[in-house]
Amino acid sequence: MVARAYADISAAVAVLTGVVQEHGPGALSSGGDPLQELSGDCLDILTGAAGADAQLAGLKALTAATFVATADAAAPPDAFVQAQEMAVTAEIACAMTIGGRAAGAFLAVSHALTTTLPLTLAALQAGSISWQHARVMVEEAATLDAAGAAALEAHFLDPGAPGAASGCPVGEMPASRFRHKARTWRERHHAESIEARHAKGVEDRQVLYTPDRDGMAWVEAYLPGDQALAIWNRITATARGLQGPGEDRTLTQLRADTFATALLTHRTTRETSRTPGTGNDNGTGFPAGGDPGLADVPTPRAEVLVTVPVFSLLGLTEEPAMLDGYGPVPASMARDLVANGSGSFYRVLVDPRDGAPLEIGRTNYRLTKAMRQWLRLRDGTCPFPGCSNQSLDNEADHLLAWANGGTTGISNLGNPCRAHHRLRHTSAWKPTPATRTEPPGWISPTGRHYTSEHQDWEPPHWPRVLNVNNGPPDLIYTERSLGEDGLEWLLRAPA
Q1: DSSP letter string, 238-264
Q2: Cβ(177)–Cβ(453) under 8 Å?
Q3: How far apart are CA 325 and CA 107, in angstroms?
Q4: Is the dihedral of CA 361, 365, 369, 375 positive or negative?
Q5: Complete DSSP assignment for 309-325
Q6: What does DSSP say about strands 441-443 and 408-409: parallel, antiparallel, or unpaired?
Q7: Which of 15, 284, 384, 473 gets the most CB atoms within 10 Å of its CB?
Q8: Domains of the chain: which residue ranges?
């Protein structure tokens, strides 16, 4: 039976291969453009193959877990547990032609899927999520208790669950983006407060040095999220400022050179950001003299947006804040950034009713600073499907061109990264706004519509003393003070 099933699969693959090679029965059907039909067939095959890969991955996970259970049941009662695990792992490794470590990791994921994450396994078997998505779910649920793991997968995979994710379905976003969303939800709903977990993490902060091949090495730093993100944004801003017609280094190379320059020198001129060891230097690996042909680059202003629920900012709740480009951070960190942070940090207060900012619009072509920051908060990343370029690097774009009657309102503005902004204006890819029946997305040159990813806004937590009938109170009629002095300071504080 197994051999016959795989023979049928091989025959189906052969048919699809024939279609791609223009030898299949439907590749050049009459009545249409043959190239367009073949192009559509190719996309259908790729989509179907992705689903089939997921189904096979689900089959492999279920089969591996069943094999382990069968082998354990057949083992002698006095067999050593560690020896039995090693034997089973070695068998799986040989059968799948993979290494022992990879086999162990595969079995660990398979065990989690078949014992604690039934919704994830079912979605994998249905082909609606990939193996990479399933691994993310397993990794994010690893440190949660049974109830927390069940709530995590229900939020993303059970549409009927209370407060279920309403944005882009898990299977329609890359696994890297799903990891960010799952981590964000896990941070907000973890049984242990983020303040306690962050305090433990701060104690583990460190810098790592790892030699690599070809005379290269890695320097990594484990830092609090606000510091790490601010450093990254500052390096990126400096690197972008160095780009120009006379600069042949890529943005990635410029980031690395800027990082090295900042640590090894105190100068911020363009000449000090040259690659170490490529010219006359002063013992630090950087040029000893200036280059009169290159102008100084001013110290950049690295912006970080921190979204703080108003009650959390006032100290009435300890709900996490959101650091744009990173995710949830402790309320204490957000309060410190707002009260003592530099001008690089911009506070954003969310509506205590639904957690989402309100729309802003105007009739002029140019955007206000507030509108640009609103776009960054709305999209989080570039809205092109699968793009993870964080919002601070992106560019505002009119969906309906200004020349064609488009307005400069939030509903008519996109926030694509430079690459996808260029793609929009140099190819047949076109962004589409939301309609009553369709979410916003992009239409490809082949005419297919791909939906954009959306952030899942959650209503902020209300202080316990204000919960009336298990719901938010009407602040007009509540007799308790929210701290008028604090609110007045908050609303009158300079932006």
Answers
A1: HHHHH-STT--S-HHHHHHHHHHHHHH
A2: yes
A3: 33
A4: positive
A5: EHHHHTTS--PPEEETT
A6: unpaired
A7: 384
A8: 2-22+45-189, 207-302, 304-356+457-492, 361-451
